[in-house]
């Protein structure tokens, strides 16, 4: 019965698969791989679960790929194909191992090229009993995380297989591997079999397999019939389960063909018997491991054969299953049939017939290897054994290769044929009449298509004989005809013009023929490129141009690239048309110098452009010489040179020169020289010149015609020499400042200057032990202060208390003069320059300190000793001197912080202090607590209160309270009280458990680490049943800062509890916004000020008496703002301020000083604000910029708060650099300009940077110059750091043009600002000679013309102004009268209507100004006691234009605005000033007359 059910189920599966297969079209592989899931679900326990991979009948074409879960196996399917010349066949292997293949062999086929997937961990063979749970696990790694597929006996396992099966995969903790597991719960016997885990990544895969055997009877899973292609091998594996299995056999047609025995013991590895072979009609059966049956080749005759698998258990149980085989043949095609001799428009059929092959067979068609486009409108008709393509109207587009493809379950074949039809030629590019250019390359197109490919021939009609001849025969070379019909003439000639014919034929239909005319056009051209003409000024000349070519020809003339103006009567032009072109002629009646040059005749026609040049040379008088320059200059001679004129022959030259610019050229000296023909440059040497004198010179050339104009004059100055004498009367004196000398001297004699003096060199050499110190030599360069009189300078930064030898020398642009004899002087001694280092301070006792420091080395000062300053926090500085580096200070306060600082001193004064350090004296026993108060709090207890000792002399560790009866002689009892119990500035301690009606003595001692202090006053108290009221709080003076809160305690005792009353200055405190009475009878004073200072009394009273406590409250104010005075210096500001006057108890006052530069940010003057600076009344702010404005801000602070800041603005000494007014600090040669930077006065602030820009005279572009020379020995203030004086004092501009004027812009910058100056200076000639100014001095005639033009313009403007004034005089008179009337009427209104306060401050301005109450820019104010009239006109306002609303004043509902204002204001004693109701665009409109000023 089970066999019948299984057979029926397999039949249903085959029918479902076949039905699904019929829905697929040819070539659709995805369709072949889809399995009807409903059919699989219906047979999952009967057949589908037993199918091996790839045995499904609907996937016959994929060899080795027979998995039911095809959707998961598509990515890694292996395909094999066999190819032939005209037929391609694809067949698949349908053996038993296709369904249940040997895992190793099958997976080897799947894993071709899968080298990057590796299974690193896997499961092994398992033997279990039914009901157990099992877990199989595999781990794999790849380039990317792989995915897993699990199979049992070749059938994929999914969630639909069984609810007991669970499949999952996760990433390993390392993130490099993927772990997959298969869990089976409550196993059954049918769960046994061969399990495989397959890791897949892309096209790569890797497989591991192992058996899971479950104890139970043997059983074999069912399989549907197996399809295999004829001639292919077959492998069958028996899908059995159950355990143990002793033997496996295969039967065929009732005969046993293979038998395999298995070992009985499960602990041993399986062993296999040797394969047996049995031949049956050419069929050999091969046994493999695990009982796999191998059939090398399956033939058609074996279709329907049955193979039976039998398995045995050791107990004798067996199971058997029969498997059917279906042998299918691949299709075979006949040759494709297509008609012959087809023509365009006919009906064409292409037939594809099947010769052999098992159905079903599917057909598909290709054209030229591609799918047939729908645009070809080809119809396909297919039947079971043939397919036909139908083309109803064939055309040239249908031609090509057609391929028929036939496919069944096991193979695919194809056949190909060609389809061609005869098509008559048709024009693709029909030729037309064409024009070609003479001498150019000519191309004519003629193209047609058809089948066979048409032939194209070119013919030309012979005009002489009247016959057609092939073009290639007529041309004789240079003509080509391409297969596509294109005709190319390499060089077109006139003979190529004529009638041509293009003939096209291919033997089908009528030939094509088209006649066309090819014309040859001639572009314009000339027979030569140009010519030269020569003439003299005043003679006529004719210029001719003859362009050749086809008309129309246009001619344009130009002279040196510019169009010729023929409007002048001197020039005429005429044109004449010739048989081969045009003739154009220019006639010049008389030639002028401007007519010379190159004339261009530019001709053009529609086919080209050409030009013809005529160079006209005009003879005229010579031009001035070129490039006149001074080659060399000495103190008494100068050599000049120039180049010849280019245009005209020169015979001689005339040279004129004069000694001063104020001498006319008529009185200048003339020298005539003959031209030297062999010299490229003409030259002359001027002798007997005066040294250090300015000269100007000019040259003209002459020939037999005339003398040329003179050149522009050039200027030069004879050379100077270095001064030959030393400065006179050198004097050296020391100043009040240490390390500074003042030097004074007189200039050398005038006759020894040898040129203008530029400055002096001062050299100071120290003399130490009779020897000079060259490394300490100081030099300074000083420019001349005045041409005559005494010179002096100050040399600072020298060694202190050192003898110097000082010498002075003068210099000019030629060099330095000799130094004077040295004058000796000693610099003044100074204070020590260093502060002591390594300062240490420690307490020696409770009243003494030990201070030590490292000695300082003093250069230039004789150290006398050291001064030690010390001070308490609130005290003043006290000082002690010592010649040693250690000092003991006695009689100090106990356990007190002291600030200590040390400085060295000499005869000059104190040196710098070290940074203050803090040290503390040692602790001592404290003084007695004071005061102390004992109150009876109950009949058996006392309440003791006391304050800290006034002299704690250390840190209080605890208090001891001593109590004993007065009558007792025993030692008192002691009680320890911690200082942390202190509240409200006092301590309280209750003493309970005492005896009533006894008198007790109480006193208190304080303790420090040094020991127990003195006892307090001894107080007696008697206990009784009557408790008198008492106040335990201890009063006394209390200081509090203004604005703070103060809590006054009033702790009371007594029975019954007393009532308390607070008094302030003997007045009962009731309700007050700043007083708050608390529940504990304390008084809280908020936001206290001076008015709340004074005595506060708390009175406690009951039936038995009263007691009180009084507080003396003093309010401490914040300090007053300090009053600063600032003394400016070059790089520092010295500040002095006064201490604020003290109010009440003296307090520590500290100061905070901040400063900023201009609009910069505020900076702290000293960083440690905790350092006590209360005694510091002077401070110097160092390191500032010279000549710079600074803002200073200082506040004073105490324990209460900070004062209001005090602001002071101050500017350090110095200013921007002062530039020299002349070029005496400049020197040049032919390629460099040297600038002596020492000519710039630093104005008290060291120059930090020089920037030099230059440009050629007349140019607009500045170029930045770089200094191109090494550092010079002469330096400014070598001893001054971070200054431009450390830089070379000369600047050199290099790579300049010889004999060229330049504008030089020099920017000097220091901390005070920037100074920019521009100078005109010139380089010399290559011979070192100076040149003249860039242009001649102003001509007096030009001055007259300019002055006359200015006077004429002024007269014209005056006349226009008078006319306008006369025209508007009448209107202005009426306007003033109307204003006067309006003012009088408005005056009445102002007396009755209150004027807004804003109007009182209104003013009348003559310029547009916004008026407001804070304006400080009023120009003037109209006095109410003056009478005058003012007339003016405002600008920038259009008539009747509204004033912007943003300046509208309240209360002015009607405002009048005029573009012209002319008013008259009168003021009398009883009338108000009348303000103009009109303003400029930005002024306030008038509202009413002003109220008079009352003084």
What are the defining features of this structure?
about 1500 residues, about 5% helix, six-stranded antiparallel beta sheet, single chain, disordered N terminus
First CA to last CA: what distance? 141 Å
Q: How is the biggest beta sheet arranged?
A: 6 strands, antiparallel
Number of distinct helices:
9
What is the average per-residue confidence, as pLDDT, rounded to a whole number? 77
Dominant shape: flat
Radius of gyration: 63 Å
- Unreliable stretches: 1-114, 265-282, 1167-1175, 1270-1288, 1383-1495
Total beta-strand segments: 105
Q: Tell me the strand percentage band.
A: 35-45%
Going by helix content, strand content and strand pairing, the class is: mainly beta
**Considering DSSP H and I runs of 4 or more, what fraction of the residues is helical?**
under 10%
Question: How does the SSE layout of this entry go?
Answer:
Layout: H1 2-22, H2 29-32, H3 37-42, H4 70-73, E1 82-83, E2 88-89, H5 96-99, H6 103-110, E3 118-121, E4 126-128, E5 134-141, E6 147-152, E7 155-156, E8 165-171, E9 178-184, E10 193-201, E11 204-214, E12 216-220, E13 226-229, E14 234-236, E15 240-243, E16 247-252, E17 255-261, E18 277-280, E19 283-287, E20 293-295, E21 306-312, E22 318-328, E23 332-333, E24 348-356, E25 362-367, E26 370-371, E27 379-382, E28 386-391, E29 400-407, E30 412-419, E31 423-429, E32 434-437, E33 442-444, E34 447-451, E35 455-461, E36 468-470, H7 471-475, E37 479-481, E38 487-489, E39 498-505, E40 512-521, E41 530-536, E42 541-545, E43 554-559, E44 562-563, E45 571-578, E46 581-588, E47 597-605, E48 608-619, E49 626-633, E50 638-643, E51 652-658, E52 669-674, E53 681-686, E54 694-702, E55 714-717, E56 728-734, E57 741-746, E58 757-768, E59 771-772, E60 778-783, E61 791-795, E62 803-812, E63 815-816, E64 823-826, E65 840-845, E66 848-852, E67 865-871, E68 878-882, E69 886-889, E70 897-905, E71 917-920, E72 932-938, E73 941-946, ...
Parallel strand pairs: 4-11, 13-22, 32-40, 41-48, 81-89
Antiparallel strand pairs: 1-2, 3-5, 5-9, 6-7, 6-10, 8-9, 10-11, 12-15, 14-20, 16-17, 16-21, 18-19, 19-20, 21-22, 23-24, 24-28, 25-26, 25-29, 27-28, 29-30, 31-34, 33-38, 35-36, 35-39, 37-38, 39-40, 42-46, 43-44, 43-47, 45-46, 47-48, 49-50, 50-53, 51-52, 51-54, 54-55, 56-57, 57-61, 58-59, 58-60, ...
């Amino acid at each position: 019965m089970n066999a019948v059910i299984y057979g029926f189920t397999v039949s249903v599966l085959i029918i479902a698969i076949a039905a699904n297969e019929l829905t697929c079209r040819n070539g659709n592989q995805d369709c072949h791989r889809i399995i009807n899931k409903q059919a699989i679900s219906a047979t999952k326990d009967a057949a589908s679960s037993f199918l091996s991979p790839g045995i499904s009948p609907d996937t016959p074409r994929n060899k080795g790929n027979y998995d039911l879960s095809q959707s998961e196996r598509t990515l890694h399917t292996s395909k094999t194909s066999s190819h032939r010349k005209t037929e391609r066949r694809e067949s698949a292997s349908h053996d038993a191992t296709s369904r249940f293949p040997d895992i190793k062999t099958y997976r080897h086929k799947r894993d071709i090229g899968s080298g990057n997937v590796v299974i690193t961990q896997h499961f092994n063979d398992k033997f279990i009993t039914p009901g157990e749970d099992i877990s199989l696990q595999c781990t794999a790694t790849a380039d990317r995380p792989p995915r897993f597929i699990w199979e049992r006996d070749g059938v994929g396992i999914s969630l639909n297989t069984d609810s007991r099966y669970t499949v999952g995969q996760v990433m390993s903790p390392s993130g490099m591997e993927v772990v997959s597991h298969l869990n089976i719960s409550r196993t059954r016997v049918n769960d046994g079999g061969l399990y495989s885990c397959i890791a897949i990544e892309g096209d790569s895969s890797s497989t591991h397999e192992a058996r899971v055997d479950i104890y139970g009877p043997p059983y074999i899973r069912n399989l549907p019939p197996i399809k295999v292609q004829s001639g292919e091998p077959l492998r069958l594996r028996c899908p059995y389960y159950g355990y143990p299995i002793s033997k496996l056999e295969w039967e065929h047609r009732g005969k046993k063909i293979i038998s395999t025995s298995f070992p009985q013991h499960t602990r041993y590895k399986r062993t296999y018997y040797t394969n047996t072979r049995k031949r049956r009609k050419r069929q050999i059966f091969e046994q493999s491991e695990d009982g796999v049956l191998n059939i090398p080749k399956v033939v058609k005759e074996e279709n329907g054969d049955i193979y039976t698998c039998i398995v045995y258990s050791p107990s004798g149980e067996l199971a058997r299953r029969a498997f059917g085989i279906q042998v299918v043949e691949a299709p075979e095609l006949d040759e494709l049939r297509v008609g012959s001799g087809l023509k365009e428009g006919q009906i064409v059929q292409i037939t594809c017939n099947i010769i052999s092959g098992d159905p079903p067979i599917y057909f598909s068609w290709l054209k030229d290897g591609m799918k047939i486009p729908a645009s070809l409108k080809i119809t396909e008709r297919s039947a079971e054994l043939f397919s036909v393509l139908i083309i109803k109207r064939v055309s040239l587009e249908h031609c090509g290769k057609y391929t028929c493809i036939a496919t069944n379950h096991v193979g695919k074949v194809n056949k190909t044929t060609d389809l061609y039809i005869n098509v008559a030629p048709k024009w693709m590019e029909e030729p037309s009449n064409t024009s070609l250019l003479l001498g150019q390359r000519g191309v004519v197109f003629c193209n047609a298509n058809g089948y066979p490919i048409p032939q194209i021939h070119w013919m030309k009609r012979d005009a002489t004989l009247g016959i057609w001849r092939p073009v290639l025969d007529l041309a004789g070379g240079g003509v080509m005809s391409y297969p596509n019909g294109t005709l190319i003439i390499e060089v077109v000639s006139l003979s190529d013009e004529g009638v041509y014919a293009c003939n096209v034929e291919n033997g089908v239909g009528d030939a094509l023929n088209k006649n066309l005319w090819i014309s040859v056009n001639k572009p314009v051209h000339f027979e030569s490129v140009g010519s030269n003409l020569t003439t003299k000024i005043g003679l006529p000349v004719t210029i001719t141009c003859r362009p050749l070519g086809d008309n129309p020809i246009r001619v344009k003339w130009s002279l040196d690239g510019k169009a010729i103006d023929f409007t002048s009567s001197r020039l005429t032009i005429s044109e004449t048309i010739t048989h081969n072109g045009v003739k154009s002629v220019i006639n010049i009646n008389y030639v002028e110098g401007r007519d010379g040059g190159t004339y261009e005749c530019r001709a053009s026609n529609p086919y080209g452009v050409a030009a013809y040049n005529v160079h006209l040379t005009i003879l005229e008088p010579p031009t001035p010489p070129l490039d006149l320059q001074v080659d060399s200059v000495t103190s008494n001679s100068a050599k000049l040179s120039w180049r010849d004129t280019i245009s005209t022959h020169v015979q001689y030259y005339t040279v004129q020169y004069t000694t001063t610019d104020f001498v006319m050229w008529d009185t200048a000296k003339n020298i005539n020289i003959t031209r030297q023909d062999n010299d490229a440059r003409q030259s002359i040497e001027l002798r007997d010149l005066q040294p250090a004198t300015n000269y100007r010179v000019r040259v003209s050339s002459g020939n037999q015609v005339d003398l040329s104009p003179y050149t522009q004059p050039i200027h030069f100055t004879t050379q100077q020499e270095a001064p030959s004498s030393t400065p006179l009367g050198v004097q050296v004196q020391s100043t009040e400042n240490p390390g500074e000398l003042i030097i004074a001297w007189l200039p050398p004699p005038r006759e020894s200057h040898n040129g203008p003096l530029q400055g002096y060199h001062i050299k100071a050499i120290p003399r130490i032990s009779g020897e000079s110190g060259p490394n300490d030599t100081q030099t300074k360069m000083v420019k001349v202060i005045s041409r005559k009189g005494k010179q002096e300078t100050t040399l600072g930064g020298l060694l202190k208390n050192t003898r110097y030898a000082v010498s002075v020398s003068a210099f000019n642009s030629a060099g330095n003069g000799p130094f004077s004899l040295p004058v000796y002087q000693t610099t003044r001694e100074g204070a020590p320059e260093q502060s002591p280092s390594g300062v240490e301070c420690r307490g020696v006792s409770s009243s003494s300190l030990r201070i030590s420091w490292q000695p300082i080395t003093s250069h230039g000062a004789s150290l006398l000793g050291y001064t030690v300053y010390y001070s308490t926090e609130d005290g003043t500085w006290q000082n002690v001197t010592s010649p040693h580096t250690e000092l003991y200070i006695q009689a100090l306060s106990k356990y007190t912080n002291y600030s200590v600082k040390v400085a060295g001193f000499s005869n000059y004064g104190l040196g710098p202090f070290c940074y203050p350090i803090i040290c503390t004296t040692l602790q001592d026993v404290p003084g007695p607590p004071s005061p102390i108060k004992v109150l009876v709090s109950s009949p058996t207890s006392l309440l003791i209160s006391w304050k800290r000792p006034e002299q704690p002399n250390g840190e209080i560790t605890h208090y001891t309270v001593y109590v004993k009866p007065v009558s007792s002689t025993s030692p008192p009892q002691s009680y320890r009280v911690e200082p942390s119990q202190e509240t409200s500035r006092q301590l309280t301690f209750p003493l309970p458990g005492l005896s009533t009606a006894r008198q007790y003595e109480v006193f208190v001692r304080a303790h420090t680490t040094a020991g127990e202090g003195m006892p307090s006053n001894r107080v007696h108290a008697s206990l009784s049943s009557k408790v008198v009221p008492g106040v335990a709080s201890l009063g006394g003076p209390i200081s509090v800062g203004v604005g703070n809160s103060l809590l006054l305690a009033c702790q009371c005792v007594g029975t019954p509890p007393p009532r308390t009353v607070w008094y302030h200055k003997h007045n009962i405190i009731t309700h007050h916004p700043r007083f708050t009475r608390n529940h504990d009878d304390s008084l809280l004073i908020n936001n206290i000020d001076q008015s709340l200072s004074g005595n506060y009394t708390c009175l406690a009273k009951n039936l038995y008496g009263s007691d009180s406590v009084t507080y003396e409250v003093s309010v401490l104010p914040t300090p007053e703002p300090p009053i600063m005075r600032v003394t400016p210096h070059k790089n520092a500001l010295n500040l002095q301020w006064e201490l604020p006057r003290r109010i009440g108890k003296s307090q520590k006052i500290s100061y905070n000083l901040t400063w900023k530069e201009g609009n910069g940010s505020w900076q702290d003057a000293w960083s440690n604000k905790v350092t006590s600076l209360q005694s510091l009344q002077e401070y110097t702010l160092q390191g500032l910029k010279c000549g710079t404005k600074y803002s200073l801000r200082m506040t004073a602070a105490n324990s209460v708060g900070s004062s209001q800041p005090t602001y002071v603005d101050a500017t350090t000494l110095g200013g921007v650099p002062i530039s020299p007014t002349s070029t005496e600090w400049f020197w040049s040669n032919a390629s460099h300009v040297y600038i002596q930077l020492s000519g710039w006065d630093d104005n008290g602030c060291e120059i930090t940077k020089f920037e030099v820009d230059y440009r050629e005279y007349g140019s607009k572009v500045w170029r930045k110059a770089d200094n191109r020379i090494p550092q010079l020995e002469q330096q400014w203030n070598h001893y001054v750091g971070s200054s431009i004086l450390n830089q070379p004092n000369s600047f050199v501009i290099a790579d300049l043009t010889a004999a060229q004027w330049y504008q030089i812009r020099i920017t000097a910058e220091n901390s005070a600002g920037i100074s920019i100056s521009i100078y005109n200076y010139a380089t010399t000639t290559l011979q070192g000679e100076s040149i003249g100014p860039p242009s001649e001095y102003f001509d007096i005639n030009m001055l007259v013309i300019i002055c006359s033009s200015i006077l004429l313009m002024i007269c014209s403007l005056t006349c226009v102004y008078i006319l306008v004034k006369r025209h508007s005089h009448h209107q202005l008179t009426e306007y003033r009268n109307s204003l006067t009337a309006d003012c009088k009427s408005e005056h009445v209104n102002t007396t009755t209507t209150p004027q807004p306060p804003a109007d009182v401050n209104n003013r009348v301005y003559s310029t547009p100004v916004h008026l407001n109450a804070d304006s400080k820019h009023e120009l003037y104010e109209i006095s109410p006691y003056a009478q005058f009239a003012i007339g003016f006109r405002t600008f920038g306002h259009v008539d009747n234009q509204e004033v912007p609303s943003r300046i509208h004043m309240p209360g002015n509902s009607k405002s009048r605005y005029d573009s012209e204002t002319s008013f008259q204001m009168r003021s009398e004693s009883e009338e108000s000033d009348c303000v103009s109701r009109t303003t400029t665009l930005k002024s306030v409109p008038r509202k009413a007359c002003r109220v008079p000023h009352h003084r």
